[in-house]
Design goal:
Length: 591
């Protein structure tokens, strides 16, 4: 299903300290077409270890320029909740960007403890809510118990929720009262009784008409919390699911220690920031990392339930958000919307964009209008968020930054599986203390993703330069093979999106109707309100791209659609468009 233009904007709720992409789904990054000469102005040197014997190929492991950091064996993020409640009890932990309602660090600790007492022994819990200031408190409560939280999209249908409940083996549900119809229907189908259905906000049972136990009631009754055994930091505390853009959704097992390690890694390289914007959907791994990192650092989070222009601009202006993390559709909003000029955004000095390629023209437009620095980030669900850090005093054009502490990287040849030297594109594999334990009840997928020596295969193609800056080229499975050449869709999309009449694009594998060979095909969404855009032809698009790329990279087919489908995180839902292609079909603007 193709999403309407406005919904595409509303789904681009991207705010996190780094941008994530799952090996089976969410991949967010700035794409760079090919290696370029490295620069020598970096403040620290990339570390690389190589080993070889007479019978084995060279093993190259790239290490973080920030070195290693000690990750405590006995702590989870709940340790940070306790510490911040003592260190800054009256300071704001969360503030609603709509109502200005506040939760202090002390309140977070008290409320989470009370909720944990009422949820004792619930096992795996489905958390189904849009962004609100109570969401992270519930998450921390489950973490306090050592329970497993499996967060779900607020847009899920009852059947989709049922699938997640059954796959994750959830025995309880916590849902926002405004979303309760879908969640309670799924719970009933799964056989979960009312006494294991809880709500954020007042809500009654559909079966009995009696009120369900709400988180507010849990806080008010304030039961004592008694735990007989300590929480194991190495136990799984969270099972987010990939969105399924490149395969069937899989549950990703994340431990308490992995979340804590992610917070430490970012804290080691990130200067203190007074506040951050929590607009990325909280069920997304990056948002989880955001409120974990913010808690670890004692940083306030301004929470927005969704993207709405006035609400977004008001929050950024009022709370003086210094850094924004956005998807390209929102970057387009900042570059072109007349509403932006009505607000003082001078406190914002930098923007991280991700979720999809960001064209140079759009990047320059935002930079010029807001006078900000723009960087790119990289991470994935299987790595518990970001594994690269943008150095704002040492930006490298097109790069997603350098490896965070404790992070190791191998780059494998797509043809020979050999480790590659700098400036040579190959598949990226990472090893870090914050990576997933594996896929839930899916040993085959786990073995296919995690190598024997513990590296996580990403399915992304990229390269690293001599200074340790990482560049993303594209996804392995998304590469188009045209007459023996590999064509990166993201590179073509970057070219297409610079066309003044094109609002968005997605390139997939098309097929020649006569030969059945793969050819690059572009789906194009035109810029709304442009008279010239309505006269743009497929042949004109083909010519535009042909003038800017090598002959084998040229777009061979073009199809116009209303909007490019994207996930909540701004990721192109490429699978939806790829599914429209058949092995043989009628030609469309084919050269």
């Amino acid at each position: 299903m193709i999403l309407p233009k406005m919904l595409t904007f509303q789904l681009a709720l991207l705010h996190a300290l780094l941008l994530e992409r799952s090996a089976s789904d969410p991949r967010q990054s700035r794409r760079h077409p090919s290696p370029s000469p490295s620069h020598s102005s970096s403040s620290s040197t990339m570390m690389m270890t190589t080993t070889t014997t007479s019978t084995t190929p060279v093993t190259r492991i790239y290490s973080s320029p920030y070195g290693s950091r000690v990750i405590p064996q006995d702590k989870t993020i709940w340790s940070a909740v306790e510490e911040q409640a003592v260190k800054r009890p009256s300071e704001t932990a969360y503030v609603c960007g709509v109502t200005d309602q506040v939760r202090t660090f002390k309140m977070v600790h008290e409320h989470a403890t009370a909720i944990a007492a009422s949820l004792l022994a619930q096992g795996v819990v489905l958390l189904h809510s849009f962004n609100c200031i109570k969401y992270p408190i519930v998450f921390f409560a489950l973490n306090r118990l050592g329970a497993v939280c499996t967060p779900s999209s607020p847009l899920f249908t009852p059947q989709e929720l049922l699938d997640q409940i059954q796959t994750a083996k959830a025995s309880a549900v916590i849902t926002h009262s405004m979303l309760a119809d879908a969640a309670l229907a799924a719970a009933e189908m799964a056989g979960i009784p009312d006494d294991r259905c809880f709500t954020i906000g007042a809500c009654k049972s559909k079966k009995t008409g009696k009120p369900l136990l709400s988180t507010q009631s849990m806080v008010e009754r304030n039961l004592p919390l008694t735990l007989t055994t300590p929480v194991d930091p190495n136990a799984v505390v969270c099972v987010p699911f990939s969105s399924g853009t490149t395969g069937k959704p899989k549950g990703v097992e994340i431990t308490g220690r992995a979340l804590y390690a992610n917070a430490i890694h970012i804290d080691e390289v990130e200067n203190g920031m007074p506040c951050a914007l929590g607009m990325l959907p909280f069920f997304h791994i990056l948002a989880m990392c955001l409120f974990h990192i913010a808690m670890y650092k004692g940083c306030s989070v301004v929470v927005l339930p969704r993207f709405e222009p006035t609400m977004f601009l008001r929050a950024v202006s009022k709370y003086q958000i210094p850094r924004l993390m956005l998807a390209p559709p929102l970057m387009m909003f900042l570059a072109h919307s007349p509403e932006v000029a009505k607000y003082d955004l001078s406190a914002t000095t930098s923007v991280i964009s991700g979720g999809a390629p960001l064209g140079k023209e759009l990047e320059q437009a935002v930079t010029k209008r807001l006078n900000v620095q723009i960087g790119q980030g990289y991470g994935m669900t299987e790595l518990t968020g970001g594994v690269c850090y943008v150095e704002w005093d040492n930006l490298r054009g097109g790069s997603v930054g350098r490896l965070t502490p404790n992070t190791e990287l191998r780059i494998k040849s797509l043809e020979t599986d050999e480790d590659l030297p700098p400036n040579t594109p190959g598949e990226l594999l990472f090893r870090t203390p914050q990576q997933m334990r594996g896929y839930l009840d899916n040993p085959e997928a786990t073995m296919a993703t995690i190598t024997e020596d513990g590296f996580v295969r990403t399915g992304d193609v990229g390269y690293i330069d001599e200074d340790g800056f990482l560049f993303i080229v594209d996804r392995v499975k998304e590469l188009i093979k045209y007459k023996g050449h590999q064509v990166a869709p993201a590179e073509l999309e970057d070219v297409l999106n610079q066309h003044p009449q094109i609002a968005d694009s997605c390139c997939v594998r098309g097929y020649d109707a006569k030969t059945g060979e793969e050819v690059p095909k572009a789906y194009v969404a035109l810029r709304p309100g442009s008279a010239k855009a309505q006269t743009l032809t497929a042949d004109a698009v083909v010519t535009y791209v042909a003038e800017r790329v090598a002959p084998f990279k040229r777009v061979r087919q073009v199809e116009f659609i209303d909007a490019i489908p994207r996930s909540l995180a701004g990721k192109i839902l490429r699978k939806q468009l790829q599914a429209r292609e058949q092995f043989v079909h009628a030609p469309r603007s084919r050269l």
